[in-house]
Amino acid sequence: MTIEPARLPLMANAIRALSMDAVEAANSGHPGMPMGMADVATVLWTRHLKFDPNAPFWADRDRFVLSAGHGSMLIYALLHLTGYERPTIEDIRNFRQISSPCAGHPENFLLDGVECTTGPLGQGVAMAVGMAMAERHLNAVFGNDLVDHRTWVIAGDGCLMEGINHEAIGLAGHLGLGHLNVLWDDNRITIDGATDLSTSEDIKARYVATGWHVTECDGHDFADIERALQEAKADPRPSLVACRTVIGKGAPNKQGTSATHGSPLGAGEVAAARETLGWEAAPFEIPSEILADWHMAGEPGRAAHGAWAGRLEASDHKAEFERRMAGDLPEGFSLESHIACLIGEPQKIATRKASEIALAAINPALPDTIGGSADLTGSNNTLAGGIGTFKRDNYAGRYVYYGIREFGMAAAMNGMALHGGVIPYGGTFLVFTDYARGAIRLSALQRARVIYVMTHDSIGLGEDGPTHQPIEHIASLRAMPNLLVMRPADAVETAECWEIALQQKDRPTVLALTRQNLPQLRLEAGENLSAKGGYRIKSAEATRKVVILATGSEVALAYDCAAQLEAAGVGVDVVSMVCSELFDEQPEAYRADVLPADALIVSIEAASTFGWQRYTGTGGINIGLDRFGASAPAGDLFAHFGFTAEAIVPQIQSKLNA
Ligand SMILES: Cc1ncc(C[n+]2csc(CCOP(=O)(O)OP(=O)(O)O)c2C)c(N)n1
Ligand SMILES: [Mg+2]
């Protein structure tokens, strides 16, 4: 059973009809892109994409990324037409409504078959790079029998214009990711009008310059599209296919203009489009022969899936492969013995160094990790455990030299995490989370297990000065939903944080780590205390009047303050608030015990005080830095900005005496 080439235009028109009708019904959305790329998508999904609508999570499926996420109706139509369980036609009727998984932009957790959340332009392509990296790595580990698939992207002018595109394609070209194919909706239109309003770039030349194979096609000529996709698959380099298309193709009066980009066509134009396309079916009705053709599109994938399942069954790697794709840690995995070693031999080290020694324990025990850094390997201490370099002639390697591409790294890590089978971690300076922020947000939104190793976490980095000293970063990251922000105080907490981060199947973690050495405060073996998010690390000796909350490097300072106050007869608890998100998840009784109503609550963090008031109340004290830092040795900076017991204790005393 094969689909006759003559049927393809009718099948493409089904995408067009569903797209314009759904946008019309919602009275919002983007008909132009799905109508323009309907022909290309039809060739891709009927002749090339390897997928099984009955098994959306089949590990060896091709990954399809709609980077131009505003064209969401394209993927909703494709999933519906090819016979995925959802979206139903009812879901499509309810496009963009609260009850429907057909959200304005595709969201990976709303619909099986949506591999990643797209809409922030450019990130889809960059995530696809990560998916292609994960594919090549798992191929190297498990072999062609289990892992051999492609990553296909549909991207618009916007995706290629965004700065992240430069980072992403540079990485992909360098790594030689030949299983990555980007189909560019080359319609020369964006929201403001024609692309020549804003760009004169030779995009194809730029891709060629970064090591890509580039070809082009008439995006409305089925045979030419087929030829270009064949060419893309045959070439060993990543491919860009410039598909020359007409935005809104089929809407006779509006096609080719930005008017079709992001607004309903209007009843009159929809009627005219039906006429032009020869589409007689009522809204949301697909003629049964066309639906039958579409249902056939998944047949080759279903067969391939069956053959693959047989190979998996026969494979010695079955259990390990399934474990990894399920995202489970190996049976019994923990850092307990590593932590026991730390307790046995306390050391004064930077938490970035503590992270390195944690990684030296993790990486050999957990083959899932793929580490890396945006050109700060020696500073982020991210390379440990003899994991080898991931490169074009060694995809089995597990360490990625991302280059100075923070955003590209973060987006690639999202792609890897979403692909599955690997747990990505990557480093840069905490201050440069700003450069990666768009992707960190998508890690959180997409529920992706990505671990950000962010070192040089305060003025404690010293002489590099205010350009490199994070101030508002920790607070702003804490404001992001579904992201764990951890700032461990010593080597033991750092190991605990790593253990917790690895256990989070559904959320990313930022580890904020110091450049400077910190004393080890945790000297007794026991449970993972950091898992509570905040815990009493030192209890008051005299009657408790004060609770000091601190994080990271300031916990030791809180100890100093507590010692001076205790000497004056004031009892002080010190709480290490290593991860406020986890603390907030604790039962109320636990939180009330840690933050007693009858104590003066003081926060100390060498960063913006923003947010601490919700623990200290307005009657508490917030020690922090609500200004930019300065360039000097770390010790001088802490003294200069008042992070000393001498500066803090009198403030606490005068508050107690007030
Ligand atoms: C990072 C980002 N910036 C801006 C937008 C808003 N936006 C959505 S689509 C679009 C224009 C995209 O043009 P193109 O990719 O050519 O899409 P087409 O109009 O051809 O469908 C813009 C600016 C966005 N979604 N993401
Ligand atoms: Mg465009």
Topology:
Elements: H1 8-26, H2 32-48, E1 63-66, H3 72-82, H4 89-93, H5 123-142, E2 151-155, H6 157-161, H7 163-175, E3 180-186, E4 189-190, E5 193-194, H8 203-209, E6 213-218, H9 222-234, E7 239-244, H10 267-277, H11 288-296, H12 299-314, H13 318-326, H14 336-344, E8 349-350, H15 351-365, E9 369-373, H16 377-380, E10 399-401, H17 406-419, E11 423-429, H18 433-445, E12 451-455, H19 473-478, E13 484-486, H20 491-503, E14 509-513, E15 517-518, E16 535-538, E17 544-550, H21 553-567, E18 571-576, H22 580-584, H23 588-594, E19 600-604, H24 613-616, E20 621-623, H25 634-640, H26 645-657
Parallel strand pairs: 1-2, 2-3, 3-7, 6-7, 9-10, 9-11, 11-12, 12-14, 13-14, 17-18, 17-19, 19-20
Antiparallel strand pairs: 4-5, 8-15, 16-18
The structure holds thiamine diphosphate and magnesium ion.
Task: Give a count of the beta strands, DSSP E runs of length 2 or more.
Answer: 20
Major β-sheet, in short? Answer: 6 strands, parallel
Bound small molecules, by name, code or SMILES, are: thiamine diphosphate, magnesium ion
Mean pLDDT: 98
* Strand line-up in the sheet with most strands: 10-9-11-12-14-13
Question: What structural class is derived from the secondary structure elements?
Answer: alpha/beta
Rounded to the nearest angstrom, the distance between the terminal CA atoms is 86 Å
Indicate the proportion of strand residues: 5-15%
Number of helices: 26
Q: What is the 3D form?
A: elongated
List low-pLDDT spans: none
- The gyration radius over C-alpha positions equals 27 Å
Q: Determine the fraction of residues in helical runs and give it as a percent range.
A: 40-55%
